[in-house]
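[Help] Beginner question about ligand-bound structures

Sorry if this is basic. My supervisor gave me a protein sequence and a SMILES string for adenosine-5'-triphosphate and asked me to "get the holo structure". I don't really know what that means in practice or what format the answer should be in. Inputs are pasted below exactly as I got them.
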Amino acid sequence: MNAPDAPAALELHGLRKTFGDKVAVDDVDLTIPRGSFFGLVGPNGAGKTTSLSMAVGLLRPDRGTATVLGHDVWRDPVAAKTVLGVLPDAESLPQRLTGAELLGYLGLLRGLDPAVVTARSAELLQVLDMQDAAGRLVADYSTGMRKKIALAVALLHGPDVLVLDEPFEAVDPVSASTIRSILHGFIRSGGTIVFSSHVMALVEQLCDHVAVLANGRVRSAGSLDEVRGGHTLDEAFADLVGTSVDRAELSWFAS
Ligand SMILES: Nc1ncnc2c1ncn2[C@@H]1O[C@H](COP(=O)(O)OP(=O)(O)OP(=O)(O)O)[C@@H](O)[C@H]1O
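Answer (accepted):
No worries, everyone starts somewhere. Holo just means with the ligand present. The predicted complex, written as structure tokens, is below.
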């Protein structure tokens, strides 16, 4: 699929991050091939968000490197960020702008032609079924609406690589289906997607590559079939992470 010497879509090498005594990400190496739909899974606190934040240049690692299509995100941030589309944390979006204003402002900040910004914003708002909310303040959006406008922000400049931390969290089933279609279209057009999720069925349905992270380390990574090893992703996940999923009981329920 990829030319042998073409850089990977995303290459993480020896990434490490500590917060005080806590090692959040511990020597993470990951190669995300071009054109892949890559799922990142792991228990709560595994280090997914921290890894993805370092991968896109939002959080400086203690050590290690991250390159996007061959551009180092710290040494060559403008080139890296031009080809990257990142789902912003919905809470960090400017709250006192309307959805339409937000897209207009960020599009111009990206250096896009105003006519292109207008056309793309209108199309994104329409496809994401947000036309009625376009004139309302982001502060008044529901959690799912913020997630959708954040996705529009990630897509607006036409990136080559999308990095999405839990893009389906809090969105309704119809919107989730719309987002799946948009992401499939992005892959068909030659783009690469890496996204984190806790929903194994979704990852199995969408992804061709997966990595399982636990305690800040990569437990397994490769094609979906390699990681599953003949089981469901749920089973492989429980095996790799070493947790029992069906034994949680509260003592006072029995009395
Ligand atoms: N800013 C921070 N300060 C202190 N500790 C942090 C900070 N950010 C993350 N951590 C810790 O680092 C570890 C990894 O957190 P991270 O958010 O990357 O996990 P995650 O896999 O995304 O979890 P979840 O699935 O619950 O979203 C956790 O133990 C978390 O408490």
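A couple of things worth pointing out: The chain has a mean pLDDT of 93. The domain at 10-244 is CATH 3.40.50.300 (Rossmann fold). Feel free to follow up in the thread.
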